[in-house]
Amino acid sequence: MTSPRSTADSFAVRYDSAPDGVWRGPGRVNLIGEHTDYNDGFVFPFAIDRSTAVAMRTRDDRVVRLSTDFSDTVAEISLDALDVDELTAGTLNGWSAYPLGVIWALRHFGAGLTGVRGFDAHIASDVPAGAGLSSSAALMCAIAVALNDEWRLEFDRATLARVGQLAENKAVGAPTGIMDESASLFGTRDHGVFLDCRSLDSEVIELGFEKHGLELLVMNTRVDHAHATGGYAERRASCEKGARLMGVPSLRDLDIDDLERAERELDDETFRRVRHIITENQRVLDTVRVLRTSGPSAIGDLLNASHVSMRDDFEISVPELDLAVETAQANGAVGARMTGGGFGGAAIALVSHDRVERVADAVLRAFSDAGFRAPECFTVHPSDGAGRVF
Fold first, then answer.
1. Which of 37, 40, 120, 180 is catalytic?
2. Catalytic residue at 286?
3. What is the DSSP secondary-structure string of 79-113?
4. Which domains does the chain have, with CATH numbers?
């Protein structure tokens, strides 16, 4: 886990003073429910024990300065440039678009930027970028909770989740749903966040991994992806097309009984995209039900089916993800699937504690034999959501 103390020490080196405090935003694993969030559907992620830490101190002027452990660049901007209805193209660039986008988005939810002071912030993270573990939401939620405290905004967590989504959609240009921010903000130790993305109602559901001797193994393929580029946007457009042709506001309004009509009325590609969303929504509901009645050891078939759907119907997997999933399954995983937006990133496997090393070693060997870049394998644990550390 990122050390809040070392982040505070790095802040002191950069800015020659101690911070007011340190806040953290965790990354997330999506246990099941992929690409359903922007279709008003159901998702079931959990916050993880890898996070982004932000050390912050307010200033006496309107300047914002941002530094990080992962870039030599110090971003500097006046709050006046962010106190606008629409951002001018080129105002925000690179990694700083995420935290600066949060400031801009806070304004759209009622935060008056005219009377607030600028700040210095230093950012550190151990959430791998591009791995499908939502390093972007971890950063934005850490900044959001920090500014909520420092500027005394008193926004609730549901509002902060919407702030993060608006920032990612408009300031960064990634057409993501609200799942990632919700997981990072509402996470609870040893629980998942069951979220209805239409109503934004959420419920924490006990996972029971530790009680049942299970671990969640992340297999980061190190094939980078970016939500702001084409594939993600194309899938979202396909879903919108499917909903329009089926005569519903969103694919959330369709269920298993509508698949026969969808197959008749849609072209093959659009039908397969729609089928993934319909069946994935059902898998989320089934996973929550099975966890409540039978425990985590019984959800493996649902995880496996989710991967097949993403591979064949939504077509967002890559050979490295398929190999990681197949190898984990062949070596005794309860279940495995890719996680995140796809086109790279990470797969996850639910594995009994005594098989974690075996599965990880098998995945490393399989990647070597295939001539792929060595993956990064590590376990994560459901953790508490974003907040102040000290």
1. 180
2. no
3. GGGGSSSSPPTTSS-GGGHHHHHHHHHHHHTT---
4. 4-205+384-388 (3.30.230.10), 207-380 (3.30.70.890)
